Amino acid sequence: MEKIINLLKNTLIEIDIIYFQRNERDFTYEVYHKIRETDLSDGIEITAETPKSGHKIPKELLEDDFFIKYFFNKNNFDFENGKFSRTPDLLFHEYTNRNQQLVAFEVKNAFENLTKIKVDLAKLAFYNRGPLKYKKCILLLYSNNNRVSDIYIQEIKDFLKRYPEIEIWIVKPQTKIKIICSDNINSSKI
Q1: What confidence tens digit (pLDDT) does each residue in 61-91 have?
Q2: Residue 7 to residues 21, 46, 159: CA-CA distances in angstroms?
Q3: Which of 35, 46, 162, 169 has the most CB atoms around it within 10 Å of its CB?
Q4: Count of CB atoms within 10 A of residue 170's CB?
């Protein structure tokens, strides 16, 4: 796991500035491409936009107001048939071994509206606490300047405290990555 996290950090720092000015898909695919050029070894793969649907939602998540509010939205849930579809941006896993689900990764431009950021956090809660059981989940917010959406609202702070396996990474061109997690959410400032 540490190897993957270090690889992600090193890759993000090396992303060309031009991708910080592009849309989410272009940025994500550049990250994917750079990681595919490395050797993950040990049967670990990175996959992009692998559909995850039809899994049962555990009771724990159905009792979480944040999850309910942001997971079940009209773009991702068929209310008539009770079915949902989720497609994580990037996954690190052993593709054929459900016991080796390592990192689920969602990407958003830091200027997205706060609701879209919360929807991705709810998705990450599902990847972590649902049947997929990803060990770590990361919401990457990328920005080409110093402005970042105000994510330090109480609702997100409370969410991160309940889900310590989920982190928010803020990355800007060729700078250190700022990681916001349950351990530092109260002291973090951008």
Answers
A1: 989 999 989 887 655 555 555 555 567 899 9
A2: 22, 12, 26
A3: 46
A4: 21
CA angle 126, 12, 44 (to 5 degrees): 55
- Whether the CB-CB separation of 19 and 34 falls below 8 Å is answered with no
Q: Is residue 190 part of a domain?
A: no
Radius of gyration, alpha carbons of the chain? 16
Task: Establish if 185 belongs to a structural domain.
Answer: no
Helix (H) or strand (E) holding 91: strand 90-93
Residue 158 lies in a domain: yes
Note the pLDDT tens digit of each residue in 116-150: 899 999 999 999 998 888 999 999 999 887 666 66
| Range 50-54, long-range pairs (CB < 8 A, 24+ positions) | 50/87, 50/88, 50/91, 51/85, 51/86, 51/87, 52/85, 52/86, 52/87, 52/88, 52/127, 52/132, 53/83, 53/84, 53/85, 53/86, 54/83
* Residue linked to tokens 């939205």: 73
Residue 98 has pLDDT above 50, yes or no: yes
Q: What is the domain count for the chain?
A: 1
Which structural domain, as residue segments, surrounds residue 148?
2-180
Question: In sequence order, what are the residues at sequence separation of 6 or more whose Cβ sits closer than 8 angstroms to the Cβ of residue 5?
Answer: 103, 136
Q: Which two structure tokens, joined as six digits, stand for 153?
A: 């609202």
